[in-house]
Recover the amino acids of this structure.
């Protein structure tokens, strides 16, 4: 799609550019003012979203629209990017060329950008047209998708490979009931891990889709906490971990109850998984500055400062060896972040090595229904 849009824009730009040059040359030859079509064509080129630049045989800019100047590729009557000058020289020999060019942060006064450049020789006199399209976000998405697929492939190989080896081992040990029990127990563990990975991949895909919040309703913070604690209780009991709930949970938020329960369950599951047996995991609720805040605090080992900015990335794990032992796959916190963001909120972490971690889920409070009639009346007046 991007290529088709760029090509269509490029063709339109070339046609308009030729019209501009032809009008300018006719005006120069006749020693008259340019025709009205020249001004109209220039205005149309200025309205084009891609940057459009035309340089003559001496690399002097004879036409540049607002988008090109906004990208910083044109300064006065010169191309400000050496790579574009080299590209123009190449095109004069080859006829046309398409390249991605990196623009530095200093050039445009913002972060570095990647632009897709379509270049074409317009005539035998050395005139070259350049169509410059900002593809920074598109390239970033491509990189994320590529990394995501590579990570998914890697994560799927581990449980699938383990199940295959365990199946072969059980076949070889068909006459050893004790070995069969041992291998089958491990196979169940790997199957559960695979099932959890697939389920979380599906959840993450839905959260990143075009309709991440299909159903909005008034959701009780108390109900969300109660359901999440109930889901985490079995794993907590298995490690003799106490789940403590405190604070004010009487507020309501507007959103999808199922997603909010999933987010809080993921935080609780992590807290239980990374806490020592016999410790306490606390869930505390409060309202603060228009947000409902639900904080999950554990008494685990804590998270190093250098990892705290990355733990919400997909598949990122502070300790891969321990995550494998606990069944973690690095998607739980990514799901929490997407759910919070889709609800207009966020999630933050506070952690110190040796003392534990606190993850705080923040969701905007629902408007007070009692104020709605008064607000409507005020709007009418």
């Amino acid at each position: 799609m991007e290529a088709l849009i760029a090509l269509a824009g490029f063709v339109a730009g070339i046609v308009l550019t030729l019209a501009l040059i032809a009008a300018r040359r006719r005006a120069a030859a006749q020693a008259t003012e340019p025709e009205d079509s020249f001004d109209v064509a220039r205005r149309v080129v200025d309205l084009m979203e891609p940057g459009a630049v035309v340089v003559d045989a001496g690399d002097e800019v004879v036409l540049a629209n607002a988008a090109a100047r906004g990208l910083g590729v044109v300064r006065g009557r010169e191309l400000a990017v050496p790579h574009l000058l080299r590209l123009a020289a190449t095109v004069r020999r080859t006829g046309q060329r398409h390249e991605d060019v990196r623009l530095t942060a200093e050039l445009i006064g913002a972060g570095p950008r990647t632009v897709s450049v379509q270049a074409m020789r317009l005539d035998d006199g050395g005139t070259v047209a350049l169509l410059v399209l900002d593809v920074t976000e598109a390239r970033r998405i491509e990189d994320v998708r590529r990394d995501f697929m590579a990570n998914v492939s890697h994560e799927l190989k581990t449980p699938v490979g383990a199940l295959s080896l365990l199946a072969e081992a059980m076949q070889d040990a068909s006459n050893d009931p004790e070995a069969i029990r041992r291998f089958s127990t491990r196979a169940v563990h790997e199957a559960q891990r695979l099932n959890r990975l697939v389920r979380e991949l599906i959840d993450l895909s839905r959260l990143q889709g075009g309709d991440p919040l299909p159903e909005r309703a008034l959701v009780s913070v108390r109900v969300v906490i109660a359901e999440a604690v109930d889901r985490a209780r079995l794993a907590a009991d298995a490690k003799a971990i106490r789940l403590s709930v405190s604070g004010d949970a009487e507020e309501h938020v507007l959103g999808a109850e199922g997603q909010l329960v999933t987010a809080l369950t993921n935080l609780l599951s992590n807290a239980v998984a990374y806490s020592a047996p016999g410790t306490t995991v606390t869930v505390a609720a409060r309202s603060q500055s228009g947000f409902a805040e639900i904080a999950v605090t554990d008494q685990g080992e804590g998270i190093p400062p250098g990892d705290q900015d990355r733990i919400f990335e997909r598949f990122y794990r502070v300790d891969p060896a321990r995550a494998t032992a606990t069944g973690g796959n690095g998607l739980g916190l990514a799901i929490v972040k997407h759910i919070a963001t889709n609800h207009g909120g966020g999630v933050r972490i506070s952690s110190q090595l040796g003392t534990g971690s606190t993850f705080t889920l923040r969701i905007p409070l629902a408007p007070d229904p009692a104020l709605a009639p008064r607000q409507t009346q005020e709007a009418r007046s």
Observations:
- The chain is about 50% helix and 20% strand.
- Residues 237 and 243 are 9 Å apart (CA to CA).
- The chain has three domains: 2-134, 137-209, 215-381.
